[in-house]
Amino acid sequence: MTLKTAQQYEDSLRKLKFQVYLQGEKVANPVDHPIIRPSMHSVKLTYELALDPEYEDLMTATSHLTGKKINRFCHLHQSTEDLVKKVKMQRMLGQRTAACFQRCVGMDAINAVDSVTFEMDEKLGTHYHERFNQFLLKMQEEDWTVDGAMTDPKGDRGLAPHQQADPDLFVRVVEKRQDGIVVCGAKCHQTGALNSHWILIMPTLSMGEKDADYAVSFVAPADAAGIVYIYGRQSCDTRKLEGSSIDVGNKQFGGHEALMVFDHVFIPWENVFMCGEYEFSGALVERFAGYHRQSYGGCKVGVGDVLIGATALAADYNGAHKASHVKDKLIEMVHLNETLYACGIACSAEGYKTASGNYIIDLMLANVCKQNVTRFPYEIARLAQDIAGGLMVTMPSEKDLHNLEIGKYVEKYFRGVNTVPTEHRMRILRLIENLTLGTAAVGYLTESMHGAGSPQAQRIVISRQANLEQKKSLARRIAGIPAK
Ligand code: SF4
Ligand code: FE
Fold this sequence. Notes:
Layout: H1 6-14, E1 20-22, E2 25-26, H2 37-48, H3 56-59, E3 60-62, E4 69-71, H4 80-97, H5 104-124, H6 128-142, E5 146-149, E6 172-176, E7 180-187, E8 198-201, E9 216-221, E10 227-231, E11 258-268, E12 272-275, H7 281-318, H8 324-349, E13 352-353, E14 359-360, H9 363-373, H10 376-388, H11 391-394, H12 398-401, H13 407-413, H14 422-436, H15 439-450, H16 455-465, H17 468-479
Parallel strand pairs: 1-10, 5-8
Antiparallel strand pairs: 1-2, 3-4, 6-7, 7-11, 8-9, 9-12, 10-11, 13-14
Helix pairs in contact: 1-2, 4-7, 4-8, 5-6, 5-7, 7-8, 7-9, 7-10, 7-14, 8-9, 8-10, 9-16, 10-14
């Protein structure tokens, strides 16, 4: 069963015994919780579309391990064409969900862990790559959603992990046994944690010798004993408890993040992919981040497509669509959005084969992609709010629209173009609110800023890859200055 149906996916999640807290209370059934469920719908769509012939080419791939058809989210990229298809798949899913569909972090993590464990084994004679392949085989066979987890709490940013007042501020090995390791610590902002079957943990930064206990990578079942999830709040999240399909903006889909705590979690050796090899932690961070920076050139573009469409509809409904400045602003939004896509495609097309055989993106272009993502969605959102008008945040609720006494006033005074029902105008303005200020703004804006590393992290990679000396020699030659 290499491709689960959407229903089988949902049923498989129900079997997991998550320890999860939301707003101070333990949640017995996360799958049906109204705040969590929209995020499950987004992941569920990645199963549904994999079985839809129309999307087969983007959503599925051929396993290099078994030759079977698998979900692309479980695949190791075997060519630059695979890398390009990944970005196209993400744009399409962003268009369909207008949310973070969460499953990419696992795909990016397996691709990074594959090449790093291979190189580690080559150099050190360890056996991590074989173990990783065993896990990958099961992941592909079972069509698991795997949550790649990198970001530690980090405490005082001026101190290394071993210098922190609290030693658990980075995930670490607290005990090594004959049968495995015991880990403590936490991972923050964990995208899609409660919609995942397994988690794949990686170190968050390049570790030094004194931080060898923190150079640890492993997989664990998402509901393993000792893992506790504390669900993250999102702006306007409690609207999902009200049962209104207008006020939530996006009536079906969402994303989520959670704090993932490891309170003495036992990991058998067969699930450990790095344990103390600190000199390889930097490569793992750089490759995972590189893949995820590529990802944003797809998913954020797809969400951007929805926002641009919503803005154009808002202009239509307001009767402002013929104004030249409105047309020009929509063109600007498209230009910015397609520039992000161009970066996502470019870093994929310029990818190359790693020593282990899978393909990696061009790091420079992936980092340029993500650096642009830290800016352009904010400008796109600003223009969307400009065109939408203030009503998107001052409008009454769905309950007012349907109130027997005052509904007629809402209907009358919030109508724009007379041919368009007031309810349609309200729906589209709420969608713009959702994407730029509500629950989806977590994924579309703040995550664009900080997800896959904050802006400065990309500038560091860009500066490392910039090769200014080569550029200077180009200038010298053109200007007629002798080479040094
Ligand atoms: Fe995928 Fe984008 Fe969400 Fe990351 S932010 S998991 S790339 S949808
Ligand atoms: Fe992300």
